[in-house]
Amino acid sequence: MERRSFPALAWLAARPAWLPALVLGGLLLAGLWWGGLVGGSLLLVLAAYAGWLAYLSWPAVATRGRLWRLAAVGLLLAAAMISVVTR
């Protein structure tokens, strides 16, 4: 997985540091604002990205950091499900 992720990580590293944060923040706000299937899909994309980064950083992170990463992915998945079901 690490080898297959290298091109995407290299592409991200070549971008300005503020760009991924801006895109991810935009996905979060748009997903929470739109709701329904569109909002849930945006939140699911965000959860997949967070899960991918959590997987890649897992060996280098202490237990507390792992728990925080799992909690963040879990909250994003829960928000996506709630968004789809309630609207």
Protein architecture, described:
With 87 residues, this protein is mostly helical. It has one domain. 86% of the residues lie in helices and 0% in strands. It is built from 4 helices and no strands. Helix 2 packs antiparallel against helix 3 and helix 3 runs antiparallel to helix 4. The longest helix is centred in the last third of the chain and has 24 residues. The radius of gyration is 14 Å and the shape is globular. The model has no long low-confidence stretch (mean pLDDT 93).
Summarize this entry quickly.
The chain has 87 residues and is an all-alpha fold.
Map the helices and strands.
Elements: H1 2-13, H2 18-34, H3 36-57, H4 63-86
Biggest sheet details: none
Q: H/E element string?
A: HHHH
Rounded to the nearest angstrom, the distance between the terminal CA atoms is: 36 Å
Mean pLDDT: 93
Estimated radius of gyration: 14 Å
Helix content: over 70%
Number of strands: 0
The helix/strand class is mainly alpha
Strand content: under 5%
Number of helices: 4
How many distinct domains?
A: 1
Net shape: globular
Give the uncertain stretches in residue-range form.
none
Provide tags for this entry.
4 helices, 87 residues, single chain, mainly alpha
